[in-house]
Each structure stands twice: as C-alpha cells, then as structure tokens.
Backbone:
C-alpha cells in the first residue's frame, strides 16, 4: 500500500545541505536527484511565497480545510502537500495519510472503498488534527469518481481532510472546488531555478560554467523538475555542465541557431532565415519544438523593440495555433518566416 511504502522511501531523502558523504551508498548513487533533493520543510521550498505562507498558517493552527493546489508541473505542489502533512501529523504521518496518485486505480470504486476504509480507521491524533487523503494529479480523475468524492468529503469531514493537487483547476468539478480552499501556484522564477540547480551542483561537486546553467534555466522555463532532471542527465552523459552538453542531452534546437532565424527575419532576409530553419528541421525537430523556441527567442531578444516583439508574437501565435490544429509541416513554419519578414519591413 502507498502509505506503507512511500514515507519510508522519502524519509531516507536528504535535506538539502545535509550529508553528502553518504552518496557512497550505491542506492543513493542511482537515486534521481529530483527525489534526493525534494525539500522536506517549508523553508526549503522555493518561490510561491504567498501560497506557501497561506499553507503555513494552516500548519500552525493545525486545522486544515480541504485544499486544492493548482499550478504548472514541477513547481512544488506535491512537495508542499507532503511537507504540510509532515508538520501536521509528525510521527503519525505513516498511519494517517493516504496518498493516491495517477498511478493508482482511482475510479469510482477506489473513492468509495479505499477512501471510505481509510476514513473509518481509528488513528489517535491530537484534538483538532485530522487524517489526510492526498489526491495527487487529481485532474486525471474521472468525473464520476469526482462526483463520488463530493459526499465522501462531507460524510467524513469530522475526521478526514482532503488535499488535491492538479495542473488545471478547471478539470476539477465545481462542487469539489466549492468545498475546498484553492491555492494557486505559479511558475518559478529563473532566479529560483538558478539558486536550486547551482546548490545541487555544489553538493554533487559537479563542474559547470554559467552558460551551461543558463541553458538549463532557459529550457526549464520555470519548471524545476525539468531543470534538475536535465542537470542530472547532462552530468551522467558528459560530466561537465556546459551549454553544448546541455543542448546535446536535452534535444532542443540550439538557441543560437533559432536566434539567427529571428535576426535574419528582422532584417527581411528571408533566404538566410529559411536556410537556418531548414537546418534545424533536418535535424529532426518537430514543428512544435521549433515554434516554441522561436517564441522564446523573440521574447528574450535583446535588440528588438517592444512593438516589434508584439507584432512578431502575434504572427507566431497564429502559426502555433495552426500547428496545434495538426498542420505540423515545414510549410507552416516557412509561411511564418515570410510573414515575419513582411512585418519587419512594414514598421
Ligand atoms: N519550489 C520548489 N523548491 C524546491 N524544489 C522544488 C520546487 N519545486 C519542485 N522542486 C523539485 O522538483 C521535484 C518535483 O516537484 P513536485 O513533485 O513538488 O512538483 P509538482 O508541482 O507536484 O508537479 P506535477 O504537477 O508535475 O505533479 C521535487 O522533488 C523537487 O526536487
Ligand atoms: Mg505532483
């Protein structure tokens, strides 16, 4: 059962800044860094200060309402819920938390039986404390299962609280949202991602240069899980973290090449732009990969004016829409370059 296994695995995880020497243990050497460096305390969780402080209030009062944590992937939602449960329940964590995530069967039967069984079991908690059911990745629950949850939440409200994590709160049915306090998480800032990955580099004694770290941050776009995973893959593959190594591992078009496309279009030089595009396309990147990176490149461009950027983004957005609708062809990207050249000439 999850509650029997998960906490023991987690209790072995190292608090950042803890004992690095124990990495001689072979099990630790193979442990993914995202787990090894998952914060266990609120203080170690970066960013989203407002959301975390709201939750910290619950932890001091002890009385937690039902909550929904909503936000993009890899920003610390699951980590925060686990930290909150640890504070609220202390050494009773193991017996008084039921964790169900998308890998569990979470149809209507689970909601009816497993949650009911858990809610009915007796655990001696201090007055005012509650057992907690964590429904991670709750947006992947079927609607029928969510409907079944409505009553369950009310029936067991005296003894049990629910904590749901999801990427988009719209996928949680309204009646559940109205029973919960919704706490929203945003993407992490580049500064937060930088802080964490350089900390990890230092603890793991990884050699890196600043361009390598910049590349990891650029690819992650505020998703710390992606950043840490990419860091570990780069170190596994090449030992040192440099810009080139990162792009080799992460399989993203090199931003320098993408920038050359944009630079060419801003001067109306369609031939060069298309040649660069063809280069990237021939390396096997999808239209989606290319357009996302074209967008990022324009967004962070140093010399383009604000107006120019906005005009470019409008065109890029339209092409992105078409690509998402299924037109994932070089022709679409080609047409985009033509339009960008036209826009650049107009100004
Ligand atoms: N705010 C943060 N501070 C420190 N580490 C973080 C933070 N966010 C994410 N991490 C790192 O990324 C890993 C994944 O985070 P977590 O599981 O909390 O993401 P999540 O928000 O639940 O994402 P998903 O929506 O994909 O489930 C953690 O184990 C931790 O190493
Ligand atoms: Mg999660």
Residues:
């Amino acid at each position: 059962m999850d509650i029997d296994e998960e906490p023991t695995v987690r209790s072995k995880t190292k608090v950042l800044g803890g004992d690095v020497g124990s990495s001689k243990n072979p099990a630790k050497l193979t442990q993914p860094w995202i787990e090894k460096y998952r914060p266990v305390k609120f203080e170690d969780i970066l960013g989203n200060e407002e959301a975390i402080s709201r939750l910290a209030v619950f932890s001091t009062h002890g009385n937690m309402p039902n909550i929904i944590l909503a936000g993009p992937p890899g920003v610390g939602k699951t980590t925060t819920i686990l930290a909150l449960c640890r504070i609220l329940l202390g050494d009773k964590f193991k017996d008084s938390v039921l964790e169900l995530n998308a890998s569990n069967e979470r149809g209507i039967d689970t909601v009816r039986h497993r949650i009911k069984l858990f809610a009915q079991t007796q655990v001696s908690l201090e007055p005012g404390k509650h057992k907690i059911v964590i429904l991670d990745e709750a947006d992947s629950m079927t609607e029928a299962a969510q409907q079944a949850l409505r009553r369950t939440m009310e029936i067991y409200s005296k003894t049990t609280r629910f904590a749901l994590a999801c990427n988009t709160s719209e996928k949680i049915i309204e009646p559940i949202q109205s029973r919960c306090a919704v706490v929203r998480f945003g993407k992490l800032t580049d500064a937060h991602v930088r802080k964490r990955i350089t900390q990890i580099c230092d603890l793991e004694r990884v050699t890196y240069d600043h361009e390598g770290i910049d590349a990891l941050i650029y690819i992650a776009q505020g998703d710390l899980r992606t950043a840490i995973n990419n860091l570990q893959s780069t170190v596994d593959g090449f030992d040192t973290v440099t810009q080139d190594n990162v792009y080799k591992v992460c399989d993203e078009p090199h931003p320098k090449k993408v920038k050359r496309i944009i630079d060419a279009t801003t001067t109306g030089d369609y031939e060069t732009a298309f040649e660069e595009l063809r280069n990237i396309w021939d390396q096997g990147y999808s239209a989606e990969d290319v357009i996302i990176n074209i967008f990022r490149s324009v967004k962070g461009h140093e010399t383009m004016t604000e107006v120019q950027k906005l005009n470019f983004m409008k065109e890029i957005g339209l092409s992105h829409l078409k690509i998402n609708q299924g037109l994932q062809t070089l022709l679409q990207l080609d047409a985009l370059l033509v339009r960008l050249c036209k826009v650049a000439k107009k100004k």
Notes: The first strand starts at residue 67 and ends at 70. The radius of gyration is 24 Å.
